[in-house]
Amino acid sequence: MPVLCNVPTDVGLNLANWSDQRDPSVKLGPEGYYMPTTANYLEQFFSGDSAPHVIADWPDDIKYFCEELITGPGTMIDIPGITFEVARVDAWPNNIPGAIQHNAYWDAFALKTFFD
Question: Can you give the residue ranges of every domain in the chain?
Answer without folding.
Answer: 11-115
